[in-house]
Write a structure and sequence with these properties.
Layout (H helix, E strand, L loop, with lengths): L2 E4 L11 H7 L5 E4 L9 H11 L7 H14 L7 H18 L29 H19 L5 H6 L1
Parallel strand pairs: 1-2
Helix pairs in contact: 3-4
Amino acid sequence: PDFVVCDEGHILKNEASAVSKAMNSIRSRRRIILTGTPLQNNLIEYHCMVNFIKENLLGSIKEFRNRFINPIQNGQCADSTMVDVRVMKKRAHILYEMLAGCVQRKDYTALTKFLPPKHEYVLAVRMTSIQCKLYQYYLDHLTVLHLNKMGMLKSIKYF
């Protein structure tokens, strides 16, 4: 095909996944990734998506790690030196500039004029007797057995 559009393109964040392999096997001159899912500051995932759009623009994963990931992460630590922070900012800026021709970032405000107003409704519904019993059983037994093992019991109690 002349043109490939990948909606929900954030699923291409892992080069080893079957979806990424299948999409990368499609030969095309033009590719677009659309995603409404914010990227989670994971530069490896970012590399995978950019690599789908412009193969080797950022180099191999090893090159990308050495040139961008390591210096950027080194400058984000609490004990980073001023040199580390300066290098981090410089590498982040270089990366941003490199991607300016193929990455367009927009926040939700770009869509607000095209969307109808959002209305939220909160409905309070009383639980039935059986629902109350099941909920209480869950609180008394399942949260202690399962969530305590994962260290999540405190969050349930506070909720």
